[in-house]
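Hey, resending since the last one bounced:
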Amino acid sequence: MSAYLTRIALAGMACALAAPASAQTVARKDLSIDGAVTIATTAMADCKAKGYKVSATVVGRNGEVLLQLRGDDTGPHTMENSYKKAFTSRTFRIASGEMEKRLKDNPQMGAQYLTGFTTARGALPVMVGEDVVGAVGVSGAPGGEKDEACVKAGLDKVADQLK
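The structure tokens again:
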């Protein structure tokens, strides 16, 4: 019987040693849907006040669409373009327009062949400290710098919540 108990004790010790000492978790902040709605509607309102008909896309931490809004009387391409801008901004952690310079500096850049990639200006990452928790893209204004300015207005509206 003691040999049996010894084996059970040894098996128990082996299991205990094989298991991790403590569970590891990742603490992080994510962009809420309320925040996404505020950013997108503020960006679109800013563009509308300037006479631009735009659509907006907000993507989350993994580049997934959290929200898309198509503005009144916008072109059919604005939804897709706002998504590509937001996706590019999120995945590369930069303003989408910076990709144009990167592509000019490195014409062989493989990223240009990725689905959802664009070099068009008009999206900014959503940051909480140094962490990129999403991105916002706008499309439809007459120039990417105008789209980007509307995105900036949306981000400024929630800046106090992104700390």
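The first strand starts at residue 55 and ends at 59.

Sorry for the duplicate.
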